Amino acid sequence: MLGMYLKMGLVQMAGTRMYWETETRYSPVADVMPRNRFQSLLTSLHFVNNMTVSETEKKDKLWKLRLWLDSFREKCLQVVPEEHNSVDEMMIPFKGKFSRIKQYMRGKPNPWGFKVWVRTGISGMMCDFDVYQGSVNGIRAKSELGLS
């Protein structure tokens, strides 16, 4: 299922249902499993057991993804950095309604989404990142990479 999701990133369409539609069918995704099964699995995907998480850990707005994010960041840090690097903000497009970290950035191609501070090399390869979580109880959260 995750492989299908990665394939969808290579051939982007307006919505996930379009990979199964007759006119826009994309065989490397649609032939693997039916659309309803894919959506059912996607809604039940969890990276952490909700019952074993402490209240302290739940103060992190990304606590449900923290294990995966930390693992992914470790892999990014293993990339040999190039001589010239850049740190900048990046938007991951998100149009959903229920998110406590969704940001609006005027002038971006995708103004609504998740703001991420990213360190990349001149080739565009990501070496490090930090997801911006906004303020915590009215106090701005400190980021390792950005100015927040």
Automatic annotation (TrEMBL):
Transmembrane segments: none annotated. Residues 2-138 form the PiggyBac transposable element-derived protein domain. It holds the Pfam family DDE_Tnp_1_7. This is PiggyBac transposable element-derived protein domain-containing protein. It comes from Muraenolepis orangiensis (Patagonian moray cod).
